[in-house]
Design goal:
It comes from Amylocarpus encephaloides. Helix content is 15%, strand content 33%. The chain is an alpha+beta fold and 420 residues long. It binds 2-acetamido-2-deoxy-beta-D-glucopyranose (3 copies).
Length: 420
């Protein structure tokens, strides 16, 4: 909730005089920290106490379940959350990049990620990686060009919501097409994105090759390459390509099952049986080039919840694109921890950990992405498992009535409708 400073001060004074001199003194803070409401404190029932030292209430307000964990949380579970707001921006002439890697988030061994911005005409220079790359356009449109090892090529326009996948070693280039700028999110199937040899930029190779070798290789005079800049960033400001769609390879096009492009913006989402939202799975079943990095795009209605479930095939990387959520991650042995999420947050839930993701906002739709280092998205629904086990056995284990167990749904609900 954003409150204009003047209003905040007025509210503060009103509240302070209403609650008495003693309380006002206790909460006296510099003008900028004055708040309309009493700050959230770590008190649940008879447990906990007010924090006496100066406290960062803005962060507390975003993480109420860290300050006041549900009483069902327990044991020890390390941090599973990172916000791109904590990442170092790498500012470039045509945009920016910021990363989330395993040294930011220890559970992210199998994944690293990057937010990228390209101004109109800006070019993410030609490069390849020694790990697989998954990408989704989050704002605007970009032009993407790539050539495979057989000399087949593909040049495509990717619009907001569209996905690409580049197997390791496949060279590619990306250009921003939108007047107001374009952004895309990348996910790689290795947590150590900054390792040597991981990103291979073509201009870097050219300036580190003797001019005589370049001349011999390309069949031109040595003078041709004297103008290549000695240092080129990963992004350069340029002009929008006018010959983009007309490059025809004599070796053929990358299309159909060989395409690097999945037009998710044109594919309808599936309505969840639980009535709480919609989802789209993009994995090797409908996008065959994705050998690793299977994705589920999830839209959760206000108050609804991605049901209690787990994934048998690896850790889950998450990106919260819009809205507010909470999730409790349970890893067995009494260890469970609840996290709050909002725009720009990433998370990695451990392999096979039980969890849910709940939209905690009364009005906003939650949109988030689940990624797995696997060819397919697979999950187990807790409700379905209980419903398809002899009910008298489940009833004895959980000490609930057989009728209760019989009411459980035998089909996956995926996203369950509900209120906050
Ligand atoms: C394309 O891939 C799908 C899914 O893997 C497969 O069912 C289909 O037969 C493939 N089509 C061709 C033309 O290879
Ligand atoms: C949700 O919408 C209602 C009705 O418009 C509004 O009164 C309320 O403040 C909104 N809640 C939040 C948290 O934005
Ligand atoms: C099972 O539930 C009943 C109440 O229905 C309670 O009296 C009993 O203590 C519970 N059993 C266990 C083992 O917790």
């Amino acid at each position: 909730m954003k409150i204009p400073a003047v209003l905040a001060v007025t509210l503060y004074v009103a509240l302070a005089s209403a609650t008495g001199q003693e309380r006002r003194n206790k909460h006296l803070r510099p003008v900028l920290e004055r708040r309309a409401e009493a700050p959230l404190q770590p008190i649940v029932g008879t447990k906990g106490s007010e924090i006496l030292v100066p406290e960062n209430h803005a962060i507390d307000d975003q993480n109420p379940n860290s300050l006041k964990p549900p009483t069902t949380d327990g044991g020890l579970l390390g941090n599973l959350k990172w916000s791109f707001s904590h990442s170092m921006m790498k500012l470039q002439e045509g945009g920016f990049v910021r990363e989330q890697v395993v040294t930011d988030l220890p559970s992210s061994e199998d994944f690293s990620a990057a937010q990228n911005h390209l101004k109109k005409g800006a070019i993410r220079q030609m490069h390849w990686h020694d790990i697989n790359e998954w990408g989704i356009v989050t704002v605007g449109s970009v032009l993407v060009g790539a050539v495979d090892h057989q000399g087949k090529n593909q040049v495509f326009r990717a619009d907001k919501g569209d996905i690409w996948f580049f197997p390791k070693g496949e060279g590619h280039v990306i250009q921003g097409l939108s007047d107001a700028g374009a952004e895309y999110l990348l996910v790689f199937d290795n947590g150590d994105f900054d390792a040597k040899g991981r990103t291979l930029n073509v201009a870097d190779w050219v300036v580190h090759t003797p001019l005589s070798v370049l001349a011999k290789n390309f069949g031109v005079s040595q003078d041709v390459f004297k103008t290549v800049p000695k240092s080129v960033g990963s992004i350069i400001q340029g002009g929008v390509s006018d010959s983009s769609m007309s490059i025809l390879s004599p070796n053929g096009k990358l299309e159909g099952n060989s395409s690097y492009h999945f037009q998710a913006s044109k594919v309808p989402y599936t309505n969840a049986p639980g009535g709480g939202g919609r989802y789209l799975i993009v994995d090797s079943k409908n996008f065959p080039i994705t050998s690793t990095l299977a994705a589920q795009l999830v839209e959760v209605k206000p108050g609804a919840m991605r049901e209690l479930h787990w994934h048998p095939n690896g850790a889950e990387w998450l990106y919260f694109q819009s809205g507010h959520a909470r999730a409790t991650v349970w890893v067995g042995g009494g260890n469970a921890r609840t996290f709050d999420f909002q725009e720009g947050d990433t998370a990695v839930f451990p392999d096979n950990a039980g969890h849910y993701v709940e939209n905690t906002h009364p009005n906003e739709t939650l949109y988030y992405i689940e990624i797995f280092k696997a060819p397919k998205v697979l999950d187990f629904s807790l409700q379905q498992w209980l419903a398809l086990t002899p009910p008298d056995i489940v009833a004895q284990i959980l000490n609930v009535s057989v009728e209760t167990v019989k009411s459980f749904k035998t089909n996956k609900q995926v996203i369950i409708a509900g209120n906050v």
